[in-house]
From TrEMBL, chains A, B:
Gene3D superfamilies: 3.30.450.40, Heat-inducible transcription repressor hrca homolog, domain 3, Winged helix-like DNA-binding domain superfamily/Winged helix DNA-binding domain. It comes from Streptosporangium nondiastaticum. HAMAP family: HrcA (MF_00081). Belongs to the HrcA family. It comes from the Bacteria. Residues 34-62 form the HTH deoR-type domain. This is Heat-inducible transcription repressor HrcA. The lineage of its organism: Bacteria, Bacillati, Actinomycetota, Actinomycetes, Streptosporangiales. One of its GO terms (molecular function) is DNA-binding transcription factor activity. PANTHER family: HEAT-INDUCIBLE TRANSCRIPTION REPRESSOR HRCA. The gene is hrcA. Negative regulator of class I heat shock genes (grpE-dnaK-dnaJ and groELS operons). Prevents heat-shock induction of these operons.
Length: 338, 338
DNA sequence: CTTTGGCACTCGCCACCACTGAGTGCCAGG
DNA sequence: CCTGGCACTCAGTGGTGGCGAGTGCCAAAG
């Protein structure tokens, strides 16, 4: 077991390293933190910490830097979440309040988060799996051409063009629209398939083909839209990464372009509470020298999607976690209002 | 005036420099290109080219590299557009054919372009200024709450929530919907304002407030949506930029995050034909060491939007131009079909 | 058992230096 | 106008030595 002071030393190392980006030695530590012991003692502690794998030396005769394991301990036991200042909170609210639609909310959120944390921000669009249907609209554009518009409670709109096997009359279409809506409005996506399964049967023979096609398209759209989208921003902050650019930054940029990777990344985060994944804890190889701080957000109690930031393992965890949490809360509020 | 051979020397310099990324000297030139003259002669030519500002030396006793002006001459008079190979064309078509909706088309295009050119790709969404209205839908969600859905001929859908000053009945709403559609469907966005200007007057006193609000929102949406969106991809390719990373790459990433900057960038491109902006020809400072190759694309004859790539001034212009042109053509086809 | 000061050692970093070689400009002769 | 020759420049390379931050270990003190 590590003594209280050794933890204190680790905390000091992490803080200094995050601040200076340079390996930190025993002497510098005693000078910058009031540990109340001599450098020699700190050296002993550092040896112990290294023994346990919390810190490491880049090369002999250099200071120590925290390992992933060290950061993990720091995050779990030594660091709190640093709340934002009141002006910051106000700025967030003002900025997000100006949003006009869902795209705008997500866009603003991603910019805000990037600016606040000075890191790469990732915001997932509110998921549709837990969403409900607000309205289904059918428009006849041509005799045998129908447009399906799906509106969700999170404010998202999706449309599909449908080529019908046979022309359908306006009245039949209006009929279908009405019946469809009476069955699915307010219901969850996942419940829709069984709610509409028998709908085609109640129509005239001549319209059944078309109705089936429309229903099939609706279900397809629901499934497709359950695959989630996301937005990223602040990639310019990657330039603050380290000195050894090309090698570090390249795989990160590549990973960030793969929506699939990012979705998986966010998906791995716990549904509730903040998740911090440090360095090699990230499954994706390109992100082995980055940490991901993610948290769920939602309009009500339930999280409907996640957002977070990606940055170097050497990041200001308390500050970042504070910003991420605050932004998630305000976005949740905004969504609840609309 | 520059002799034929001197132009040939310039071409050789550009080609070699693009290939090797290293300043090219007179001896290397005569070895790798059959110029039929000695290094000494080439040196004289180079001196002349430098005098005219087409090439420069990073430092004395180093080879020459092309200047922006040199690239300009190369692009204008020495380089053709290198057509893609048949397999490449086929790959493009296959890849784009799989797209299911507009977002998907744009997304695939941007990935394709980034991969093909190994540079940063920028694709503007089909512009709405030249678009027409396909349908306007009004949905009553609550007594005094209406949702406006706008569908364009390019397949885009926009929605707005409207809080009405007074409740409006279903019949009045249906009436409004019908009249609205009969006036604006098939019309250009720019024509809509005057087409609906007198519409409110024909309604009952009690509904006029709501009708005006709805119309105002519609116009607002049209204006807002005329501000164009775009998608970028391939930022990982920036790592191939040069050796002096942080300084070069940072402003570029920053510029790329500013949609406004990019839109202006594409906006500066000619409406028809390909536009190449080299280095300082770009208005934006952060892009002073990049070149932009852009071209309009559209479903018919008219260009409805633009796409292009951003890369180092030291890029393979013929190849890049070929790829950009080919992709634009195929996207145009896809859009025309849907 | 912990803490401390002392001490020898390691090793990355930097400044200095000389050498090498690619590349240049110039010039005189074909 | 082209060419070969020649002197010159200068970035890059590699070797050397001193500096200093930082370490590990140890013996003595608390």
């Amino acid at each position: 077991m590590l003594s209280e002071r050794r933890l204190e030393v680790l905390r000091a190392i992490v803080q200094d390293y995050v601040g200076t980006e340079e390996p930190v030695g025993s002497k510098a530590l005693t000078e910058r933190h009031r540990l109340g012991v001599s450098p020699a003692t700190v050296r002993n502690d550092m040896a112990a910490l290294e023994e346990e794998g919390f810190i490491a030396q880049p090369h002999t005769s250099a200071g120590r830097i925290p390992t992933d394991k060290g950061y993990r301990l720091f995050v779990d036991r030594l660091a709190g979440v640093k709340p934002l200042s009141t002006p910051e909170r106000r700025a967030i609210q003002n900025f997000l309040d100006g949003a006009v639609d869902l795209d705008d909310v997500v866009g603003r959120t991603v910019r805000l988060l990037a600016q606040l944390t000075r890191q790469v921000a990732v915001v997932q669009y509110p998921s549709l799996t837990r969403s409900t249907v607000r309205h289904v609209e059918l428009l006849s554009l041509a005799p045998a051409r129908v447009m399906l518009v799906l509106i969700t409670d999170t404010g998202r709109v999706e449309q599909r063009m449908i080529d019908c096997p046979a022309p359908i009359g306006e009245t039949s279409l209006a009929d279908l629209r009405a019946r469809l809506n009476s069955r699915v409005v307010g219901r969850r996506f996942t419940d829709v398939p069984q709610l509409v399964s028998d709908l085609a049967e109640s129509f005239e023979q001549e319209d059944r083909g078309t109705v089936s096609t429309v229903l099939a398209t609706l279900l397809e759209t629901l499934v497709e839209e359950t695959e989630e989208r996301l937005m990223i921003g602040g990639t310019a902050n990657l330039t603050r990464f380290g000195h050894d650019f090309p090698l570090t930054i390249r795989p990160v940029l590549e990973a960030l372009e793969e929506q699939v990777v990012l979705l998986k990344l966010l998906g791995e985060a716990k549904d509730s509470g903040m998740t911090v994944r440090i360095g090699h804890e990230n499954a994706h190889e390109g992100l082995n020298s980055t940490s991901v701080v993610a948290v769920g957000y939602g309009s009500g109690d339930e999280a409907v999607a996640k957002l977070g930031v990606v940055g170097p393992t050497r990041m200001d965890y308390p500050g970042t976690m504070g910003a991420v949490r605050a932004v998630a809360r305000y976005v949740g509020q905004i969504l609840a209002e609309s």
